[in-house]
Structure formats: C-alpha cells, structure tokens
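Morning run. Coffee first, then this:
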Amino acid sequence: QVQLVESGGGLVQPGGSLRLSCAASGITVSFYGMAWYRQAPGKQRELVAASFTGTIVDYADSVQGRFTISRDNAKNTVYLQMNSLKPEDTAVYYCNAHRIRGTAENDYWGQGTQVTVSS
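And here it is:
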C-alpha cells in the first residue's frame, strides 16, 4: 500500500519560513517524479514545485526564488523549503508521486498539510 504523509505545515508570519516533508512508503521516490501542489479556498489545485528523476526541478513563477524542492533518497522523503512566505501562500499543500512506465501510469497523493501565512 502506497502512502505519502505530509508534515511541517502550520501558522507562520509573513516573511517567515517553513519546511514541509513528504515521507513515502510503498514506493521508492527515486523512481518517481515528485511534486508539491497547493489548493487555496475557492481556487483550483496548482503545481508549486516539481522534482523530476535526475536533477531537473521546476517551480511556479509565484514561488521561484523563495521555495526549494529537494529529495533525500535514503530517507525516501521529499521536502519543500518555503522562505519569505506571503499571505497568498496560504493553502493546503499536497505531495504527489507520479510515474509512467510503458502503458502503466501511477499517481499518488498525500492527505495534505495546511499552511497559513498571517500576522
């Protein structure tokens, strides 16, 4: 059974930092494209950061230069370091694992962790 468990969310003041963690079980993250998405109230879920197999990463324009996605393959965990947080970063953040092998596609989601940026 595949599980992605996010942690590290919470309440932070504008300008502050948080580090989200996504601990995976049932899959090996080094074989998957890993990503963080977020969904704010009344808005669609959006891609925040992605780490493809290898060293390629990609970020939404709104978080470029402030957020960093990284992996620890030994711990089978993916992180999202969030700096210089803004109120508009408030959302539920979700971890995603995705892989395509031949005709098979695997897509897994965590339960989400709430990030609130407010003074």
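DSSP finds no helices and eleven strands in the chain. Good start to the day.
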